[in-house]
Amino acid sequence: MSFKNNDLKGLQIEFKEALGPRFSLSEIRLFWRESLRHFFGITPSDLMLSQDRIFSPDESTLLFQLVNRLNLGEPFQYLIGEIEFYGLPLKVDQRALIPRPETEELVDWIVNGHHLEVSNILDICSGSGCISLALSHHFQKANVLGVEYSKEALELSEENSMALKLPVNFIEGDVLEETSFNNLLKEQVNKNGAFDIVVSNPPYIPIQDKAKMESNVLDYEPELALFVPDEDPLLFYRKISESIFPFLSTNGALYFECHYLYVEEVRELLVQMGYQHVEKRQDLQGKWRMLKAQKS
């Protein structure tokens, strides 16, 4: 099956009507704009010159199938296979979480908070590589290391690194395996020096919250990167904070993205561990989402 119309305006109307029951108008506009750009090379600036464009039956069918998959809950970013993150085009698929705007805000905090030379950066639970790659792009003289447990996510991050020609070193590691993770950190610090910046967006959603989540997240994005045990929601924050403290440089800083309900608990945890100048920050939605702590 396909849409009835084959001209740009008619297709846009059918596209909007088909998605209207499930999505907001702003989401539909985004889907339409990005679909035209990705599949047909029609950029927003080209739209006025493309009003007379006639779509072939195959092109119309492609849009129809895209709409059906969106209505079934498949994330748009996975459907087109890419996303822009902090100005960088990234490949995304079901091997890793889709980077979120609040994670861009975390990167922006780091970028604007470090005007002196940064030599070594560590990204723990690096997923698609979005944070590591954005920081490598900005701190071009820094050695950037991304550590990730999932082999599939590592493959994706390495593909992104090669495509962007950014020299991030992605390696496999499990922060929950204390001995092996500490050995990994020790080896890296012996090679390159202490870390000036450590950042992590780890799993932080309690399993009990599954019932409240959208199906497009639960059915398509990797659970390994999302959930923590209900009885220990601070699991990753505690393990990471304990492990990296000895390997931070004197002026080194630790950054976390957090579940907004647990920011204060993570902040207290960092203070108890001896971190200094611990501060929290809201995201653009007004939720307490980010933390920064310094070694001294």
Order of helices and strands: HHHHEEHEHEHEHEEHEHEHEE
Helix content: 40-55%
- CATH-assigned homologous superfamily of the largest domain: Vaccinia Virus protein VP39
Total domains: 2
**Strand share of the residues?**
15-25%
Number of strands: 11
How far from one another are the termini?
Answer: 63 Å
Unreliable stretches (pLDDT < 50, length at least 5) are none
Tally of contiguous helical segments: 11
The CATH architecture term of the largest domain is 3-Layer(aba) Sandwich
Structure characterization notes:
- The protein is built from 11 helices and 11 strands.
- Strand 3 (120-124), helix 6 and strand 4 (143-148) form a beta-alpha-beta unit.
- It starts with 7 loop residues before the first helix and ends with a strand.
- Helices cover 42% and strands 19% of the residues.
- The strands form 3 sheets. The protein has a 7-stranded mixed sheet, with helices on both faces. Strands 1-2 form a two-stranded antiparallel ribbon.
- The longest helix has 16 residues, at 25-40.
- The mean pLDDT is 94.
- The chain folds into 2 domains: 8-72; 86-294, Rossmann fold.
- Helix 1 (8-19) runs parallel beside helix 3 (57-71).
- The protein has 296 residues and is α/β, with parallel strands linked by helices.
Please tag this protein with its features.
alpha/beta, Rossmann fold, 2 domains, two-stranded antiparallel ribbon, 11 helices, about 20% strand, elongated
What is the fold's blueprint, element by element?
Elements lengths: L7 H12 L5 H16 L16 H15 L4 H5 L1 E4 L2 E4 L9 H13 L6 E5 L5 H9 L4 E6 L2 H14 L4 E4 L5 H15 L2 E6 L4 E2 L8 H4 L8 E2 L6 H10 L3 E10 L5 H10 L3 E7 L5 E7 L2
